[in-house]
Records
---
Amino acid sequence: MIAEETLVKELKEEATQAKAFELLVDTYKQRLYWHIRRIVLDHDDSDDVLQNTFIKVYRNIESFKGESKLYSWMYRIATNEALQFLKAKSRKLGVSASDMQEQLANKLKADVYFDGNEIQLRLQQALARLPEKQKLVFNMKYFDGLKYEEMSGILDTSVGALKASYHLAVKKIESFLKED
């Protein structure tokens, strides 16, 4: 694996940019796909958002200053792209973002790309009911294993606020899963 600083340098140089970008995509596409997928839930939508994310990364690599890790910067782009996608989709469908999330979670069982069991389906339904920030924090902590400091850089929020959001999300998920 190439060092992050070297990769960024090669991404910014015209002679090495294409090969470096290919390496960047190969290295991060799976992690970013699943991060996006947990936000938008649908496979095809996730692929579209992932493609848009990499386009934005490619177009904006010159503005990357190295003040955070490269993947943190890309996670921020992916998160923003996914949230913008959901807002546009809910506007287009004429429903609230929370209603749309619940509809998407309920359709997961029929999704050929969803291979989860009943418990995973219930977890996704519980997540769909969370406020946006709690859902993001829970996904990043629980599924991606990110530290609060990393999430702070991605979501531009204090560590204390992130811990509180995670705690509230866990309580709400537990409550939802205890229903029925």
---
Amino acid sequence: MANEIPVSEIPIGDMASNMGIVLTSASARTVVGTMPVAGNTQPFGLLNGGASIAFAETLGSIGANIHAGVGRVAVGIEINGTHHRSATSGTVTGTATSLSLGRTVAVYEIVIRDEKEKLICTARLTCLLRDAP
């Protein structure tokens, strides 16, 4: 289940597409993607904290769904984040790393950095793994 999946085969959903999120690699253990700051800002021109959290949840959920496997789905049940600094331009990169991959729960730490590798946000996502409806 930890094998890397071709990113072209992974659906990311309308919201993530609208936000400009692009996957660069994906496996159950690690998911990496990018997101532009432009189009995801609050009124003062800073990267919106909600956009960072949506980005984090997208990356972690993709890893959890890969881990869940065929016939199962992962649904987010808890996310929290700490915003360390703002970004005003460029692209941010997020890396979701599994902390725990169980039969019913998967937990990820997601670290978001700017183009200068400065820490923008850290988040933790917990997903419940269920049989697909």
---
Amino acid sequence: MPAVFLHGVPESHVIWDPIRSKLSRKDVITPDMPGFGGSLVPEGFGATMNEYATWFVAELEKAGGDVDLVGHDWGALLSLRVACLRPDLIRTWTIGSGAIDPDYVWHDTAKLWQTPGVGEQFMQAMTGDLLKGTLMGAGVPEAGAQQMADGIDDTMKDCILKLYRSAVNVGTEWGPDLPKAPKAGMLLWGVDDPYMQVKHAEYVGRVTGAKMVRLESTGHWWPLQRPEEAAKALQEHWASV
């Protein structure tokens, strides 16, 4: 019965280190998505949203099932998708900063990534101190922004573009399966998230019955901004099921 934590974009497994350090349990698995965190991209892997979901199902099968699933950003979208596809693998699920909602409109940066040519130009500039400063301006603490900036390579950039371009209509494509998610869900949300507003979490909560934990004065990057509160909420959620 491990806990499996999945990161988002432009992150790697290290985003979970502050929360992991505050958990009492040690059976925590934090994989990197293919192409992220220096991981390899399997031959023939197209980095689409459905391919990542298939990959993640296989990861949970390797973990033995009956997992406590936690996801942030794209890790949240994939966690919720897998919970709908394979509820038999899930004991509990928790997501934050990524919701499947047919009414969601992608944020401006995502729209740039989804635009051929423009996305490639954006990625060329997405490096070093400029990227670090951009992430800090979006609310990422300095240490976390430095880690993310240092960790982004050309492979990750290519995977990000392919993932976002495959997901223009993710809400309408994945949304119909939301009622299949197990009932043991929790939404852990920064109420000031500018990229995935809390109203989209509320929609997921209405459809799935998941409970909501609101993190006040917190934006998109709650694993780095509020690790102690997040760890406490997770442990209470796991103990309640």
---
Amino acid sequence: MVGDERIRLFCALQLPDDTLDALAAWQERELRSAEGRVVPRGNLHVTLAFLGSRPAGDLESVADELRAASAAVPAPLELRPVRYRETRNVGMIVLEDLSGRATALADDLQERLERLGVYRREGRSWLPHVTVLRFRRPEGLRFGVANTCSIHVVRSALYRSHLGRDGARYEVLKTAALGG
């Protein structure tokens, strides 16, 4: 990547393999009849900050801020699935931040990225969630969550989003351990 090349970036929490397996199994069971596009297992994550199209030259400074914010929060973060919810374009599993530390991480990271000049906060509060389905219009689906066990997250990552005809493909560019 060259400094002025544009790339789509976002920072997120990486979900553990057992959580990814459980979510993929739930998607297969519950969403197989949905008309939308099921989010592939490899794309499941909890977004902390979506930066959108940025110059590739921003990558290292964004990664540095992600590492610093991640190091400042004790690991693991404990999240718990609480419900399925639909918005205008996505179906998601909403998560409860049991300790408040994931929310603190998101706030700290977003503030750092704002100071860096690469991010502007949304008008609403950060909502921890995993997008599991994308669609053109809400389907009005109602599901319970199959597993309400806690999810213990220990890593964050800087992702690149590659847009394509069959949906986005996410590439992990850098990772950061929570708690340093």
